[in-house]
## 1
Amino acid sequence: MARINDNYLKLAAGYLFPEIGRRVKAFCEANPSAKVIRMGIGDVTEPLPGACIAALHKATDEMAVRSSFRGYGPEQGYDFLREAIAKHDFQSRGANVSANEIFVSDGSKCDVGNILDVFGADNTIAVQDPVYPVYVDTNVMVGRTGSADASGRYPGLVYLPCTADNGFTPALPPGKVDLIYLCSPNNPTGTVMSRETLTKWVEYARANEAIILFDAAYETYITDPAIPHSIYEIPGARECAIEFRSFSKTAGFTGLRCAFTVVPQSLMGRTSDGSQKDVHSLWNRRHCTKFNGVSYPIQRAAEAIYSAEGAQQVKSVIAFYLENARLLREGIAQAGVQVFGGVNAPYIWLKTPKGLKSWDFFDKLLSEAHLVGTPGSGFGSCGEGYFRLSAFNSRENTMEAVQRFQKLG
Ligand code: MLT
């Protein structure tokens, strides 16, 4: 009989969001008349920007005509999209990123998992705690950890606590680590890293020959002009960082699928014989071997967010979600609950009232207010006693959710 990858058996529980889905489904079946408001998984609710829809239709029509039909595209993405990304997302902010350092893909979740292919098994990995579970689970899957302990932590990973006491900004690791996952604006805490903090991390990474895996999937939500949108705004980051970006939360592409990863050509890793090798060529090799590119119409839809019209439409949908975040933040604070995040991010991170455990608060909120959020402990042991709410919802649902929250005993 074929052997399975035993590392999968180490995974502490099901993936967080399916577990929430399971509990909500059971509740809805038992209470069919309950009007449940879902603020658990961060999935967008507003339709695609008009400019993206127009580009999608146009590109689809091109596919229907022999002279403009396209088959396989370049695995790394079409030049029209890579160039628009380099210009608008990086060069306009003074970040030195060129089009050929951008790899278009079907999602950041896939990319943050797949990036492990190009790194050796003996690297020491650091993650923030609480953390987007994909960073941890993908390392467990490839065998970089032992089995989870009682708190859900895996031996083999270095956890960097992020709590209210340190403003949810992790301290540098006590020793040397090789790969560091940083996420800003942060999922799940909704907080951001300042320029000074990011500079400290870049300096640490360069001094320790470490690589930062920087997840900036929520950068469009940054409202504070002092906060960097890209790690490449920090001098020296081209030598120590890979950045992940997504159109999902920026332009409502969770159902269309388009993202990109930046691997600078100046980023080096070490081979087992001690020499240096650029990571860009390894990632390019991996990408071309295991991926056939994002479809042409979807790349055209993504390109449309960089037009004047598309940029305006994106701006207004982001403002809409951020207003939801403000309503949640202020409404919940009025109920006497401590709230974090939600200013430069679509997530509200709250301290559970009366010291309730995260999953107990989840059950209370669901059964008494018919509201669904995400238990903080699902993101790591430092998330215990916290709870995440997503601002991705209609205005009507958001206002109703605040009222129900305030009525909760
Ligand atoms: C979340 O709710 O944390 C996100 O939707 C997850 C994701 O983007 O994969």
## 2
Amino acid sequence: MKPYEAPDFLNIDEHFSSEERMIRDTLREFVSKEIIPTISTHYENGTFPTDLIPQLAELGTLGSTIQGYECAGVNYTSYGLIMQELERGDSGIRSFVSVQGALCMYPIYAFGSEEHKKKYLPKMAKGQLIGCFGLTEPDFGSNPGGMITRAKKDGADYILNGAKMWITNGGMAGVAIVWAKDDNDKIVGFIVDRDLKGFSVRNIEKKFSLKASVTSELIFEDCRVPASQMLNVQGLKGPFACLNNARYGISWGALGASMACYDEALNYSKTRIQFDKPIASFQLVQAKLVEMFTDITLGQLLALHLGRMKDKDQALPAHISMAKMKNVSNALKHARITRDILGASGITYEYQCGRHMLNLESVNTYEGTEDIHRLILGHHITGIPAFK
Ligand code: TGC
Ligand code: FAD
């Protein structure tokens, strides 16, 4: 197979610092050597490559933006580049890292006590403890504010009852960030250790997307959680603060999947002969390649600019929504175009586009569906919320 060549039409590379380039190149090599050769087998078998966890930790990818607590403390642009490279390998690997860092370590860092941070973060940075994030419920996905999971105060504890659905890393997690409503109907969050009585997990096995990722249901039946495990935040802004970071990372990750597909489509079309010519010589095929190439270039500009804004703490949720919505929907389109350019070969595990295509169906749905981000932007520009 021809070595991967990342498209960079506008020489965006020169706008990254030498440290950012070094982080990206290290991850790029890791993905080529350690992920690409085995990921399609994991995908086919529906297994997560747990042997990669120590290496992902060693590379500083877990909770990478957190300062201290044995975390790498890199800037958000570097974090974006890490996500881009990992998702070039597979959305499931990027998901694992997103959830561990942005959705589990970040809330502990932002809303936990000093004791929580010292207890959980170093172990999580080393990959010795895996986390998950329970917001979605069977009946409340796009509308998490309607959640029915309850946290009832009982002396020095809270009693959790309810279920969380479609939870990435659930079956492999030793700790869960769980959002529930308290006695005053306020949304509160807890750090819930997996070994607590009344906390059980069921893996969702039969899925055609994110097969190299663990997706689970978390069930709480009179699960007694010490009040000291409560996070110091109230209302939906708690989970949404975590989602801002994860959605930002996904906007870069999707670019990685797009770039992988484009590279595959370009190489294939230059070598596949039909009607005595490489298919890349046909205008209709070139139009498809140009559409991908142009979208990727625009997506790279958006991601870089957003990264710089995030590093200055200037990225608004609506900015992040635009990047998540557009870069993911484009990536899904690019995976489908690549599948088309590869003809029948595109449906096999020998090529990446089919796997990316099926993964991206989930990525387009989770962390706010494409249409929910469209509505967040609609709210931003008109001032009128159209969710209800
Ligand atoms: P709304 O009334 O708009 O807001 C409620 C409160 O939240 C605040 N807020 C935010 N704060 C920080 N960042 C944001 N992005 C925020 N968005 C809203 C808001 O200011 C308000 O605060 P306060 O103090 O006034 O109470 O909320 P709403 O109930 O009308 O909902 C709006 C809507 C639909 C946009 C929202 O619910 C939404 O984004 N839904 C999508 C749900 C979602 O993204 N779920 C993700 C689950 S986790 C996941 O998918 C992980 S996959 C991981 C992987 O494998 O990679
Ligand atoms: P619904 O909310 O039922 O939406 C169905 C359709 O209706 C969508 O097209 C949606 O856009 C549309 N719709 C809904 N409301 C509106 C509206 N107001 N206006 C217009 N259209 C609307 N959740 C977690 O908490 N933690 C996780 O780790 C996690 N991991 C996931 C992993 C995978 C593989 C998947 C697939 C999901 C994961 N999720 C997780 C859940 C994910 O966040 C939800 O699936 C997502 O928020 C959408 O919710 P839903 O599936 O219930 O769809």
